[in-house]
Amino acid sequence: MQKNAHKIEMYTAQYCGFCLRARALLKNKGVDWHEIHVDHDADLRMAMAKRSGRRTVPQIFIDGRHIGGFDDLYALERRGELDALLQQGDTSSAA
Questions:
Q1: Is the per-residue pLDDT at 15 higher than 80?
Q2: CA-based nearest residue to 85, from 29, 40, 43, 39
Q3: For a 10 Å CB count at each end of the chain, is N or C smaller?
Q4: 0.90 cut: is pTM over it?
Q5: What is each CA distance from 48 to 15, 52, 60, in whole angstroms?
């Protein structure tokens, strides 16, 4: 995968079909992401829910911006907005 200037974080669970789809879409875009597995970690799942306002996986963040789940990520792709989001200016100094 290519290095990207954006910090992409995805909260996932091992046996999650929507997580698999989100991984495939991001892989197809040629970007790296950091995966946070919440299947067996109640504290991580609680942190995910507090951060995103949602309890389901995946929950995806790009440069700290909550994108949502797979349906939300795919909606960005369908509207042609995901590429633009991934190509926005260099954010390598972002947290």
A1: yes
A2: 29
A3: C
A4: no
A5: 17, 6, 10
The strand ranges marked E within the chain are 8-12, 34-37, 59-62, 65-68
Rg, the chain, Cα only = 13
* 65 or 89, which is more confident: 65
Provide long-range contacts, Cβ within 8 A and 24+ apart, for 87-94.
88/6, 90/5, 91/5, 91/6, 91/7, 91/63, 92/5, 94/6, 94/7, 94/63, 94/64
- The CATH superfamily assigned to 8-87 is Glutaredoxin (3.40.30.10)
Which residue is listed with tokens 């989001």? 85
pLDDT bin (cut points 50, 70, 90) of residue 3 is low
